[in-house]
Write a structure and sequence with these properties.
heterodimer, A: alpha+beta, Nucleotidyltransferase, domain 5, Ribosomal Protein L22, Chain A, 4 domains, B: alpha/beta, 6-stranded mixed sheet, 3 helices, globular, disordered N terminus
Chain lengths: 611, 140
C-alpha cells in the first residue's frame, strides 16, 4: 500500500489528487486546487504546487511528508501567446470632425453655417446680413449668459442656425432660445474647432442616430461637394455612424484619411511546401492557407512589418522562457481571428472613435520535457518526497475522464486551457492520440478586450467568465436572459443603471458605454470564434478520417467545462453530428476538474498492479 | 410634515394630478439660488422640478417627503450645508445620496447642479455621477 499524490500544473490552475493505492487500486482521499503562478513549466510554479499539496493532504488527514510519491503531469508541451494588430487606421490631419454621444445634446435638426465664436456676437461683429452662423460657446460662458447673447442676436436678425458648447449645457441654452437650434455639447477640446469655417451640426431625435453626417452623400449635399471630394469624406461618415450628435467642419486643408497599414505576410513552412498569405486578406484566408500546408514545421512573419514583429515577439518570449536559442523555437500552430476594434481617431476633438479592422493571432510553440524535469527535481528537494513525471498528459486526462459515470471507449476529450485547446482520443487497444492547437482562453479575453475597447485585460477576463445584468432600479436587476431579480435592501447608488457582472463577490459594475446586448454579443462571439472553432478543429484532427461523426463519446474536461455557457455552446454545435458529448464528471463527483491529477494516479496504479 | 408649493400660489398642487416633477424641498433659510441650481441640473436632462418648502431641518427627511409626494418618486432635500437625494421606495432614513455642499462655490454652485442632475438620472435610469460625492448609505 502506498500514498500517492497526482499534480496537474495547468496554465491557470494547479490541481492535486491524493490516493491510497493498494495492489494497484487507488482509493481517492482528497483533492485540491490553487491558481498557477508564473508560466506553466517554469520554477515559478513551485509555490502553487506546494500549496495544493498541503491543502489536499490536510483534507486527507495526512502530511506532505507521509506521501510515498508525487506524480507530476508531463505538461502539455505547448506554450501559446496572442497578439493583435489593426489593419486600418483613421487619421484626421486637421480637426475637421467632432462626433460623439453626449448624454444630452440640445435641440434637434441640422444647421449649416460658418463657425463663429460667441465673442464675435458680444462685440456685435455679426449682423443680419451675414451668412448662416454656427455659434461656438467655450466653458467660461455660463449657459444663462450664453443663451442671453444668442437670443438677442437672433432677435436682431443674426442667422444663427446651430451651436457647439464645451460644457454639458446644450439643453439649458436651447431651452432659453426662441427656437430649438441643434446644439452639440461636451466638446472637450473646443479650442481645436476652427473658426470661420463652413460646418454642419446635426442632432438626432432621442433614440435615433445622425443620418446626414453619417452618409457621404448627405455630407456632399450639405457642403456641395464634387464627386472627388465626396470620396474624401467617407472615413468621416464612417466614424459618425451610430452617434446621436455630430459636427463636421469643412477646412480647406483638413483631411481625414483611412489608410491601410502595411501589415505584412505570414509564411507557413510545412513538410512538403511553403505558402505565404498577407495578413490583410483576413483570418479565413490565413486559416485556409494553414490548412493546405499542415502539418506545419514553423511559421515566419515578413521582416519589418507588423506581423513579422508579432510573430518574432512570440518566438523571443518563448525562447526566453524555455532558455532555448531562438533558432530552435518552432511555431507549431496559428489561429487567426478577424475582429472590429474601436480605435481613437488620431487628431480628433472629442475623443472620437472609429471602428477599424484588426486581426488577432494566437501562436503556439512546442516546449520539451526538460522543463518539467527541472520542476520535478526542485520539488523533490523542497518536500523531500520522490517526484516523478507520470506520463503524457493526454493519457492521464483520458484515464481521469473515464471515471465519469456513463462513459466508455472509444472516448475523445477536449481539454481547453488558457493558451491551447488540447484533444485526445483513446480507442480500445490502440495508443492514445493527441493534438494541441493554438488559441484558447487568453485569445478569447484579448478579443473581448479589443472589440469592446476596454482599458484592462482584467475587466475583459471578468466579462468572459461572468454573466451580465442591468441594474434597472435601486431594488431590482434584469439578468441577460431577461429574468428579473428583486432585492430586499436597496442596491448601492454606484450600481444604479449600470451594467454589472454577477460575481462571487456580488455585483461588479463595468465602466462602459456599451449596451448589455453588445457586451453579451461580443463575449459569445469571441467564445464561438476561438473556443468552439478550435474544439471543432481538434475533433477533426483526432477523429478517424477527420470525420467527427465517427466519434462516439466526447467529454469536455478542464476549464472549458467550468465556463457558464461554453459547454452549452459546444453541445449545440456538436449535436448535429449525432455523438454523445457532455461535461466530464471526474470520479462521479468533481465535474470537469482534476481529470489529469486523477488519471496520473490511475496510470501509476495500472503499472504497479500485479499481472 | 406639511409643504407648500413655492413655485405657484396654489397650495396642494403637489398632490396626485399635478404635473410629474422631481420635488426639491428646502428648509426655511435655504437660498432660492440653491434650489435654482438644483433645478438646472435636472433641466439639462429634460426633467421638470417643483420647489417646495418643508418644515423639517434634516435634508434626508425633506428629500424623503419630496420623493413620497413626487409623481416621479424622486425628491431632493436641502437643509443647512447638506443635500439629500431620495427615492420613494428607499427606507425613510436611508437616502440614495447625501452630500455636504458647505464648500460649493457661490455663483455657479456645481455641487447643487450635480445633485439636480443625479436626481434626474434616477428618473431617466442613467448611471449617477458620483466621482466627487460620497454615496450616502449612512445618513450621518
Amino acid at each position: 500500500m502506498s500514498l500517492i499524490a497526482g499534480i496537474d500544473i495547468g496554465n491557470s490552475t494547479t490541481e492535486a489528487a491524493i490516493a491510497r493505492v493498494t495492489d494497484g487500486r487507488p482509493e481517492f482521499l482528497a483533492s485540491g486546487m490553487a491558481y498557477t503562478q508564473g508560466i506553466k513549466g517554469t520554477l515559478d510554479n513551485i509555490p502553487a504546487i506546494i500549496d495544493v499539496l498541503e491543502q489536499a493532504t490536510a483534507k486527507a488527514g495526512v502530511n506532505v511528508a507521509d506521501l510515498d510519491r508525487v506524480l507530476l503531469n508531463e505538461a502539455t508541451p505547448v506554450i501559446g501567446d496572442v497578439a493583435m494588430e489593426t489593419v486600418t487606421e483613421t487619421v484626421v490631419t486637421e480637426s475637421s470632425m467632432v462626433g460623439h454621444n453626449p448624454d444630452s445634446p440640445g435641440g434637434r435638426g441640422i444647421g449649416v453655417g460658418r463657425t463663429t465664436a460667441i465673442d464675435a456676437l458680444v462685440q456685435n461683429e455679426a449682423s443680419a446680413d451675414d451668412e448662416p452662423i454656427i455659434v461656438v460657446v467655450p466653458a467660461d460662458y455660463d449657459f444663462e449668459i450664453a443663451a442671453g447673447i444668442i437670443r438677442r442676436a437672433l432677435e436682431a436678425g443674426v442667422p444663427i442656425v446651430a451651436g457647439i458648447a464645451q460644457k454639458d449645457d446644450g439643453v439649458l441654452i436651447v431651452n432659453r432660445l426662441p427656437e430649438a437650434l441643434p446644439f452639440v455639447d461636451e466638446v472637450g477640446r473646443i479650442d481645436k474647432v476652427p473658426l470661420g469655417m463652413l460646418a454642419a451640426v446635426e442632432v438626432a431625435p432621442q433614440g435615433h442616430a445622425v443620418r446626414e453626417l453619417s452618409n457621404p452623400y448627405g455630407i456632399a449635399t450639405l457642403f456641395s461637394l464634387t464627386p472627388e471630394e465626396t470620396g474624401f469624406v467617407i472615413p468621416i461618415a464612417k466614424a459618425l455612424v451610430g452617434l446621436r450628435s455630430a459636427v463636421v467642419v469643412r477646412t480647406p486643408a483638413g483631411d481625414v484619411t483611412s489608410k491601410p497599414i502595411p501589415a505584412g505576410t505570414i509564411e507557413f513552412v510545412g513538410a512538403h511546401q511553403r505558402l505565404s498569405v498577407a495578413l490583410e486578406q483576413g483570418a479565413d484566408e490565413i486559416m485556409e492557407t494553414l490548412g493546405r500546408v499542415a502539418p506545419i514545421h514553423d511559421v515566419h512573419g515578413e521582416a519589418g512589418t507588423n506581423v513579422g514583429g508579432m510573430i518574432e515577439h512570440v518566438r523571443q518570449t518563448m525562447a526566453d522562457l524555455t532558455e532555448k536559442p531562438l533558432a530552435e523555437v518552432f511555431i507549431k500552430d496559428v489561429l487567426a481571428v478577424d475582429c472590429l476594434v474601436p480605435q481613437k481617431v488620431a487628431g480628433g476633438v472629442a475623443d472620437e472613435f472609429s471602428i477599424e479592422t484588426a486581426t488577432g493571432l494566437a501562436i503556439m510553440v512546442n516546449t520539451d520535457r526538460l522543463l518539467m524535469t527541472r520542476i520535478a527535481d526542485t520539488l523533490a528537494r523542497r518536500i523531500d518526497v520522490p517526484v516523478e513525471l507520470g506520463g503524457i498528459e493526454a493519457n492521464s486526462a483520458i484515464l481521469g475522464a473515464l471515471t465519469t459515470p456513463g462513459i466508455d471507449y472509444p472516448l475523445a476529450i477536449i481539454d481547453g486551457g488558457a493558451g491551447s485547446v488540447d484533444g485526445a482520443i483513446c480507442r480500445r487497444d490502440k495508443p492514445v492520440e493527441h493534438v494541441h492547437l493554438a488559441g484558447a482562453g487568453h485569445m478569447t479575453t484579448l478579443l473581448i478586450k479589443n472589440e469592446l475597447g476596454l482599458a484592462s485585460v482584467d475587466v475583459a477576463e471578468k466579462i468572459k467568465i461572468h454573466s451580465l445584468a442591468k441594474v434597472e432600479s435601486l431594488f431590482h436587476i434584469r439578468h441577460e436572459d431577461g429574468g428579473v431579480q428583486f432585492f430586499e435592501t436597496p442596491l448601492d447608488a454606484t450600481l444604479f443603471a449600470r451594467i454589472v457582472l454577477l460575481t462571487d463577490d456580488g455585483l461588479v459594475p463595468i465602466d462602459t458605454r456599451h449596451t448589455l446586448d453588445r457586451i453579451r454579443g461580443v463575449r459569445r462571439e469571441a467564445k464561438q470564434r476561438v473556443l468552439v472553432t478550435n474544439s471543432l478543429r481538434v475533433l477533426r484532427r483526432i477523429a478517424p478520417g477527420g470525420n467527427i461523426r465517427l466519434l462516439d463519446f466526447v467529454a469536455i474536461v478542464g476549464r472549458f467545462g467550468l465556463d457558464f455557457e461554453l459547454p452549452q455552446m459546444l453541445m449545440t454545435e456538436l449535436s448535429q453530428y449525432g455523438i454523445v458529448v457532455g461535461v466530464a464528471n471526474v470520479r462521479g463527483a468533481l465535474g470537469p476538474t482534476n481529470a489529469v491529477a486523477t488519471g496520473l494516479i490511475i496510470n501509476h496504479g495500472q503499472q504497479e498492479r500485479p499481472a | 410634515m406639511s409643504a407648500s408649493d413655492a413655485d405657484k400660489p396654489s397650495i396642494g398642487s403637489a398632490e396626485a394630478g399635478a404635473r410629474p416633477a422631481i420635488h426639491v424641498v428646502r428648509a426655511s433659510g435655504v437660498d432660492d439660488a440653491c434650489t435654482g441650481r438644483v433645478a438646472i441640473g435636472a433641466e439639462e436632462l429634460g426633467i421638470p422640478t417643483r420647489v417646495l418648502i418643508g418644515e423639517d431641518t434634516d435634508a434626508v427627511a425633506l428629500a424623503h417627503h419630496g420623493a413620497r409626494t413626487s409623481r416621479l418618486g424622486v425628491g431632493v432635500g436641502l437643509a443647512g450645508d447638506r443635500i439629500a437625494i431620495h427615492e420613494r421606495h428607499m427606507p425613510a432614513e436611508q437616502a440614495v445620496i447625501v452630500c455636504d455642499v458647505s464648500n460649493d462655490p457661490m455663483g455657479q454652485r456645481p455641487g447643487h447642479r450635480r445633485a439636480g442632475e443625479n436626481a434626474a438620472r434616477l428618473v431617466v435610469g442613467r448611471p449617477l455621477r458620483l466621482d466627487d460625492i460620497a454615496a450616502g448609505n449612512d445618513t450621518g
